[in-house]
Write a structure and sequence with these properties.
The chain is of the alpha/beta class and 256 residues long. It contains twelve helices and nine strands.
């Protein structure tokens, strides 16, 4: 069966080369190609009311034109077309891409490979067919980097916060009041900062161990300044994660 394919690649010359190479196998028909995730999503939505909808699968670079990268585009596409088969390829090695992939929650009907390892059409076609069949595959190099970013994030408190929350946390650690933080960030309502503080406390588990807002605020500042996840027990003893993933008592030694 000929696979109908959506091809998303921001480099026009490579996109045309991939299209020609894949169609030359006789196993693939590229029904639409574009440079951005936004265009790919728009194509699917425009055709969803008719008989066509999305093709059998999508082959997509991770770095794209437009605001969305390939992972973000896949999440948007699969929101409208659940478990739509997608094969990602990339030469990019930015932590942000692997972090987006971890957070995407993609479980099946996909492959994620390095472009340099899987650029030939005869190597891509089996990945596409596997994705259509519901299987998943991650190139060993990609998997190693995903796990590296996971370990890094588990020990980086800021990676657990959204950008706006990170800014508030840093200002909080500098000793600014909610009113001062609101003014610094241009918010008219200081309650916005209170709500953001609540999200920070929840992300770091402080809402479970600190019933007093001042205590939670102080502990949040300590986490920012130490750049490590700290947990407190009911008696107020602090613990930090060690390199083996276990908890040990917080002290001047463990703080360094």
């Amino acid at each position: 069966m000929t696979l109908k394919l959506l091809l998303v690649e921001d480099n026009l010359r490579l996109r045309l080369a991939l299209k020609g190479g894949l169609e030359a196998t006789g196993e693939v028909q590229v029904v639409y190609d574009c440079e951005s995730g936004e265009a790919a999503l728009a194509f699917g939505l425009a055709n969803s009311a008719g008989e066509m909808a999305l093709p059998d699968a999508t082959l997509m670079d991770v770095q794209l034109a437009g605001k969305m990268n390939g992972i973000q585009a896949a999440v948007a596409i699969r929101r409208e077309f659940p478990r739509h088969p997608i094969v990602f390829y990339s030469i990019q090695d930015d932590d942000a891409y692997y972090r987006d992939f971890r957070r995407s929650g993609i479980l099946s009907h996909y492959a994620y490979v390095r472009k340099s390892n899987y650029l030939l059409p005869q190597m891509i076609v089996p990945l596409l067919r596997d994705a259509v069949s519901g299987r998943s595959f991650i190139d060993a190099e990609i998997e190693a980097r995903v796990q590296e970013v996971r370990q890094k994030d588990e020990n980086d408190p800021m990676a657990m916060l959204e950008p706006n929350e990170q800014t508030v946390a840093r200002l909080l650690a500098q000793g600014l009041t909610n009113e001062q933080i609101a003014a610094r960030m241009g918010f008219l309502d200081k309650r916005t900062i209170s709500r953001t503080n609540g999200q920070i406390y929840a992300a770091w588990g402080l809402d479970q161990t600190a019933t007093d807002e001042k205590v939670a605020r102080t502990r949040a500042a300590l986490i920012v300044l130490s750049q490590r996840i700290i947990s407190w027990d009911e008696e107020g003893q602090a613990y930090v994660l060690n390199d083996r993933g276990g908890w040990e008592k917080y002290s001047e030694k463990t703080a360094t």
